[in-house]
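Q: What would this complex look like in 3D?
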Amino acid sequence: MSCDFTPTVLHGYLDSELDASRAAEFERHLESCRECATALGAEESLRSSLQGASLYERAPVSLRKKIRADLDAATASSFALRIPAWRWLAVAAAVLMIASVSWFSWPRVQNSAASAPFTAAEIIDAHVRSLQPGHLTDVASTDQHTVKPWFNGKLAFVPPVKDYADEGFPLVGGRLDVLGGQNVAALVYSRRKHLINVFVLPTKEPDTPIHPPGARQGYQWVHWRHQGMEFCAISDASASDLHELAQLIYQ
Amino acid sequence: MSGSDQGKGADVLDAQDRARFEQLVLPHLDAAFNLARWLLRSRADSEDVAQEALLRAYRFFRGFHGGDARAWLLQIVRNTCYTWLEKNRPVELMTEFDEELHPQPSISPEALAIAGDNREHLTRALETLPPRFREVLVLRELEGCSYKEIASITAIPIGTVMSALARARQRLQRALTHASPQEASREL
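A: Here is my prediction, written as structure tokens for the whole assembly.
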């Protein structure tokens, strides 16, 4: 190469890792050096191939399950080891309290005749994952007539999709997700600056009212079943906001 | 509270650790699996190795004092992958790393665009690179890591990251455009 720049500088430039003055210097150089300009074009082309080919492989659901089981085992066994005998009374009381709280807050134990097919941790996981850059929506649109048909052919059921912008819950979009090993539709609404995920999947269980909200790690969720569909809405928005949206969807 | 005698290097974890781990580390499971998949070139092996790495991360979670949880986890995943490779496919690690960076025999952007258009072809080309080239490319282009993050994950000096990437890209270009049929069809 006839120019003064080492080839690595081009890569630093491509990756936006040069400091401002060096980047500017290289840009000036690009105007006069054909070779570097072509090489940069080739690198950019390579990058768009790599990023556009869906080479990213996400963790399978089976792996998630195995890891949860591992974590359970690693936590549960150590739990017993850490607690001196005299504290067991307090532990028993705490367990009783947690059990009674979750009886009211967690759908799985809420209605013994019909337990939810996923756990609180899975819902929180799915919600947190959706907030990672680029993960929120597969179809971004405030128009229910765009979002609803998008699910056609992607799921074995048709999720109800409605925009509630007039009621203060504008539709943001939708995406496919996996909960408890099942494909589900995820609808995204916003409430002021908070995002709400509403997971929808089919169920054979009878209708239930909207359960009192569950809460963990700063997230709230509500769960209900209506007309053969199972719904779970989760957000960091307030529980009353969530309940309001749930009622809108329920109607 | 007692219980340190049970530790043996790894910590004993309680429900609070579990909740923190779920919040900070588990969201990066996709990144962990993706890195393992590209380092090991096999989904089945990656599932096993990623599972092992996550459990290892959990056991040593008390040693994580905040900061970049993704980089912390990927570091563990990478080490677990290399340990696995050393044991199961040592030949793969014997390929040279510090190859000269040759002046580019310039390949036109158009030719590359055509060669890179096929996912299968691209996958195979990427898989022909030595692991140490493959990992910097995957971390940069698929995971979107900065040089600093790549340096901390792969334990190579930050200055070396840029030249490693330059070499990796050059080799990938060559693999894409000059892959002999034999090379291109090389299976695991």
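A: To summarize the key features: The CA atoms of residues 89 and 95 of chain A lie 10 Å apart. DSSP finds nine helices and seven strands in chain A.
Q: Very helpful, thank you.
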